[in-house]
From TrEMBL:
<feature type="domain" description="AMP-binding enzyme C-terminal">
    <location>
        <begin position="530"/>
        <end position="608"/>
    </location>
</feature>
<dbReference type="InterPro" id="IPR032387">
    <property type="entry name" value="ACAS_N"/>
</dbReference>
<dbReference type="GO" id="GO:0016208">
    <property type="term" value="F:AMP binding"/>
</dbReference>
<keyword id="KW-0436">Ligase</keyword>
<keyword id="KW-0067">ATP-binding</keyword>
<dbReference type="InterPro" id="IPR011904">
    <property type="entry name" value="Ac_CoA_lig"/>
</dbReference>
<dbReference type="GO" id="GO:0003987">
    <property type="term" value="F:acetate-CoA ligase activity"/>
</dbReference>
<feature type="region of interest" description="Disordered">
    <location>
        <begin position="1"/>
        <end position="27"/>
    </location>
</feature>
<dbReference type="InterPro" id="IPR000873">
    <property type="entry name" value="AMP-dep_synth/lig_dom"/>
</dbReference>
<dbReference type="Pfam" id="PF00501">
    <property type="entry name" value="AMP-binding"/>
</dbReference>
<feature type="compositionally biased region" description="Basic and acidic residues">
    <location>
        <begin position="1"/>
        <end position="12"/>
    </location>
</feature>
<dbReference type="InterPro" id="IPR025110">
    <property type="entry name" value="AMP-bd_C"/>
</dbReference>
<dbReference type="InterPro" id="IPR042099">
    <property type="entry name" value="ANL_N_sf"/>
</dbReference>
<protein>
    <recommendedName>
        <fullName>Acetate--CoA ligase</fullName>
        <ecNumber>6.2.1.1</ecNumber>
    </recommendedName>
</protein>
<keyword id="KW-0547">Nucleotide-binding</keyword>
<comment type="similarity">
    <text>Belongs to the ATP-dependent AMP-binding enzyme family.</text>
</comment>
<dbReference type="GO" id="GO:0005524">
    <property type="term" value="F:ATP binding"/>
</dbReference>
Amino acid sequence: MVHGSRKETPRERRWKTPPPPFVSGANVTTADRNALRDAGWPTCWSGAAELLDWCRPFDAVLDTDGTTRWFPGGRLNASYNCIDRHVEGGRGDEAAIIWEGKLGETRAYTYRQLEDEVNAFAAALRDLGVGEDDVVTLYMPMVPELPIAMLACARIGAPHSVVFAGFSADALATRLTGANSEYLVTCDGYYRRGTALHLKSMADNACLSVEQDVEQIVVNRLDDGRSTGDHHSYADLVSDHDGAEIDPVERDSDDLLFLIYTSGTTGEPTLVGHTTGGYLAHVAWTSYAVFDLGPDDTHWCSADVGWITGHSYAVYGPLALGAATVLYEGTPDHPEKNRLWEVIERNEVDVFYTAPTSIRAFMKWGSEYPEQHDLSSLRLLGTVGEPIDETAWRWYREHVGGGECPIVDTWWQTETGGVVLSTLPGADRMRPGAVGRELPGIDAAVVNEVGEEVAPGESGRLVLTRPWPGMARSLCDGSGWGARRTSTVRNQWQYDTGDNAVRDVDGYLHLLGRADDVLNVSGRRLSTAEIESAIVGVEGVAEAAVVGGTDTMKGSKVHAFVSPESNVAGDEALRTRVRSAVESAIGSIAAPDSVTFTPSLPKTRSGKVVRRYLKAIANGETLGDTSALRNPEVVGELESLLDE
Ligand code: PRX
């Protein structure tokens, strides 16, 4: 928005420039961007590694001899980089974690306090028998003990596997088994919209259904004395180990820092591993360059730490740079719809990072809520998780960013570890609705089915064509850069992101959504296959197909088409059983918004379910020719059913 009476020219509407004071003080300027370009790939990534302290310097930026290894020969510890070095540098009394609790309580940890508690908990974990490379599962809500436990694991070289607290006992069990994890740190419970949820009983159910014995540690949040079963108390462990000092374990750059599950295209959640050196360098550098963070900043990434966004930009990135990070336990509209703005004002937040789905909710609630607060501390805004439309972009800038703040739309995935596409706020113009371009050192292309780059303006699959430091370790295995090879063109390495995109004539990329069977619901990735497998497990269900529907608020809606067994009625009771099966297999985030019963699903003559038609039906779109179907009549029946 251009202030004053003059109307925006079309060019001003299309392009936005960051304010000059921001540009002149930015961490990465146009000159820096040019220098990185001149350094070339992969050398340009050495600056990212230099943001960290290494116990042993790396021999090269990238080793592609057999496998892809970033910063080979280098040894480091992530907890040392996120804590000790800041204390040693005289910043022990500065804020590290600022926690805003659900019931209005606040707790702040300085870097020194963080160091003390991380050491104590690391010592406790060791005493319980956790050794290097043992996986510790963390099933916790947004309490400070979650990042503390992550950093304690990192200190002793034990990879953590954080499971989002909204996941069900079954989902936790799958993840405990998949990671072969024998240690679980959880919480007695937490509050959601003022109601207490008992996490410990879910954890107990999960532990009962896995083969290995699982040692549990419980943080008391509710403190209502209901936690039963065999477990250690987090608070007792920390006080018993008060004053302990644990030397940070030197890890190879390539050693695992953590595991995290994401939804892939198959029914099974996909396990992704991130490395200590490559990942940490990537998130530190992107926090520095994209979020323009430094030690004097207070950063608030509103994502739950249970997701990759929280790992990278609520914990590791900001703490690696010595900034303060805000953790917020609550929901944005409880007790009032001004809650977030109040938190920003009280903590003088400099950089705020959230998802378009939240921005759309803020818009719906109205600008009077942000207007009640002084948000002038904000100097940069970010978004992630799904494309941001121009209207939401402008609203965010105007009502949260005071019409001035630059906005970075950041595209990335669990597999990329950190941001790979974005504008650099000190060096690039912004284009509302477009994500921007590749960060320096990232190569992306929009390609057709055979992997050839398509012309600007044409849509295709977004692929990354060269390795990057934050890449998941599974992408580095095999020969050469042996990740997924989709290209048949000159046998070129391509990582297929699963997203469709289009590049405009100015080189900016616009994301068009997923090309595969992964739904993006409120910025969270869900696999249609995983939801379907929960539904077909319900007694009386013969078949099910799940498709995404456009939803102006959530990004995607979950539509389930369910075909009951011949003698079973598709009634309310079955519908409820279908919904609760999904809730208990995955969590309430995946529960279908609609369940439509049908005698059969539309199928090709070879028996394949044609989800394309179901998607069109669910979204009220034209179907086109259905003559290739074995049962075209079912499509008409479904349409009329939904019309009702
Ligand atoms: O479809 C893209 C979408 O979120 C997917 C990655 O989800 P996840 O691994 O859960 O990581 C979420 C946070 C990084 C992508 O494949 N996505 C993420 N950021 C954007 C986006 N779509 C459009 N624009 C974005 N900025």
